[in-house]
Amino acid sequence: MRNITYKKDTAVKQALHSFCFFCAALIFCPQMLTAQQKPDAATSQLLQQLEPVGKYVDARGRLTTPPNFQGSLDPSGWQMMTDAKGQPKFIPSQQTFSALNNANWASVFGSPGMNGTVYALAVSGDTLYAGGSFTNAGGVSANKIAKWNGTIWSALGSGMDFPVYALAVSGTDLYAGGDFGNADGVSNTTYIAKWNGTSWSALGSGMNEAVNALAVSGSNLYAGGEFTSAGGVSNTTYIARWNGTSWVALGTTGMNGIVWALAVSKDSLFVGGSFTNAGGVSANKIAKWNGTIWSALGDGMDNPVYALAVSGSDLYAGGFFTTAGGDS
Residue 6, CB half-sphere, CA atoms under 13 Å: how many? Predict the structure, then answer.
């Protein structure tokens, strides 16, 4: 097995630990048996004890097993690859789809599409922005971010060095967040940056870790992710607000876990993620900020929330949870 370099010691231990169990589980994977073979009693019993690898895969395809996890994982239905930074990543085995000859989908974005994953989309008028891990959009060189004007794809400067996970539009400005170290080589565009239609610029001194979600409300930009500091401001743990000039904390303590999703409804900001506490308030995986205080949404969820959407007075949430507010 080739050596892989990781950027965080904790990530190294967790990824390698999980990867080793993944390899061990492969030996007993049902797909390894031929049509003529049937597992013996011992193998059948072992297979029943394996937990599905999907139980511990987050929204980015990374394994997130508990710190003291022991045992093997069943990789059935998943395949492992490495991401742009060489870290293990899991994707469903059948994750390909073609819009060609499908009456319900229009293949309007040119051929051959992107050469990597698309994580985020944002629309401004007739323009569509796409962010992800790709380096080519419709045959045009575009590093991690590109623009579609209804006819052709084009790059936004020289783009980013690593993936873009989130996009948000405010007026004529486009905000991008992700796991990148810089945008177009501009200083302090660490994990977050603004495109004004011509060039990239920084938002303060950037973040100290990845941005997973962005949302705009009026003149405010909200960012959520894996960072513990936004522009060096205290209490911006996993979530922060950009007021156009500087970063501001939401409450006194931020969150106690990763933020994966944001959604705005009038004066309220809804937040989904892996946390159990929002600004000192108990909130399981989902919470609401009203501009002054945090509050829980019922009993919340039993597992992470990865997506949020607002329609009128209703909020929709999706993720890896099996219960919401105690309802299964």
Answer: 14
